[in-house]
Amino acid sequence: MNFREIQFVKSVVRPEDLPVPGLPEVAFLGRSNVGKSSLINAVLGRKKIARVSSTPGFTRALNFFRIDHRFLVVDLPGYGFARVPPQVQRSWRRLVEGYLSAPRPLRLLILIFDIRREPDPLDRGLLGYVKSLERPFIAVLNKIDRLRKGEIPRARKRWEATLEIPPEEIFLTSCRTGEGILPVKFRILEALKIR
Q: Where are the domains positioned within the chain?
């Protein structure tokens, strides 16, 4: 299934400015510079829907996109790494947690990690927080093209031990080559009950 009409809805920098809940939502969350915007673009089959930057912490707002008038994609600000003042990081955290804990029609949360990295306390903290929300989520291990083929199984096993979720809810992707993007797209459509 290809998406035909993709419209930018709004950017939100304060939880009180969140749009009124309506269409089902799919949200993307990952640490800064993990390839989150690139993954959104790859899943939607576009080049410049979500803005891509090599500067960590570039996405500073919740960005809402309406897809075929059927659901919303929400691009959440990255966490960690960003060279920004502590008060800005606190406002990002308040924004993200305000969104995730609000009574919204969130059908799937997509947690994105760089497969090359060792899981650290920041990753584990995010994972624990997301699990505490009891919302459906999957994990995407991105940037597999940056590893040699023989390194991928070991890296996946390392992340599986940290994630502690069913293996079928862990996806390996490369936004550069397109590998693994289709299964993520199908999983989103399944969560939305769209065929």
A: 6-192
What parts of the chain have a pLDDT lower than 70? 49-59, 80-89, 195
Terminal alpha carbon distance of the chain? 8
Amino acid at 154: R
Phi-psi region of 178 (alpha: psi -120 to 50; beta: other; left: phi over 0): left
For 120, the 3-state DSSP assignment is coil
Query: What is the number of other CB atoms lying within 10 angstroms of the CB of residue 130?
Result: 16
Judge whether 88 and 56 are in contact, CB under 8 Å. Answer: no
Structural contact between residues 1 and 8, judged by C-beta atoms closer than 8 angstroms: no
Sign of CA dihedral 96, 100, 105, 106: positive
**Cβ-based neighbour number of residue 37 at 10 Å:** 24
pLDDT tens digits along 78-90: 776 455 566 666 7
Token pair for residue 17? 């400015």
Just give the CATH number of 6-192.
Answer: 3.40.50.300
Which residue do the tokens 């399944």 mark? Answer: 190
Pairing of strands 71-75, 62-67: antiparallel
User: Among residues of the chain, what percentage have pLDDT more than 70?
Assistant: 89
| pTM of the model as a whole | 0.90
